[in-house]
């Protein structure tokens, strides 16, 4: 129960930070003319897309091809 409360508190504290970051990242990309912004490579050698045009998101198409059902609201 305590672990669940800690996770909920962490999420509540991080949500406004994540929203501000997303908003400013999108504004920067649009102002500077970037189509895609990646983070630095993580320890596993993977780059994560921080910003990209929604029409270029292939998540739903790939999941459909793999036969994976997409939960409602999961790709917003």
Structure summary:
With 76 residues, this protein is mostly helical. The protein is 50% helix and 7% strand.
End-to-end Cα distance: 29 Å
Q: Supply the helix-strand structural class.
A: mainly alpha
Total of helices: 2
Strand order of the largest sheet: 1-2
Largest sheet data: 2 strands, antiparallel
Mean pLDDT: 86
Q: Give Rg in angstroms.
A: 16 Å
* Percent of sequence in beta strands: 5-15%
User: What general form does the structure show?
Assistant: extended
Oligomer: single chain
Order of helices and strands: HEEH
- Poorly predicted runs of 5 or more residues: none
Give the beta-strand count.
Answer: 2
Q: Which percent range fits the helix content?
A: 40-55%
Description:
The mean pLDDT is 86. It contains 2 helices and 2 strands, in the order αββα. The chain has 76 residues and is mainly alpha-helical.
Task: List its traits.
mainly alpha, 76 residues, extended, 2 helices, two-stranded antiparallel sheet
């Amino acid at each position: 129960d305590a672990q669940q409360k800690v996770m909920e508190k962490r999420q509540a504290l991080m949500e406004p930070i994540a929203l501000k970051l997303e908003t400013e990242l999108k504004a920067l990309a649009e102002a500077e003319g970037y189509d895609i912004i990646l983070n630095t490579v993580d320890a596993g050698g993977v780059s994560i897309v921080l910003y990209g045009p929604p029409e270029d998101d292939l998540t739903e198409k790939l999941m459909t091809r793999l036969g994976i059902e997409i939960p409602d609201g999961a790709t917003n």
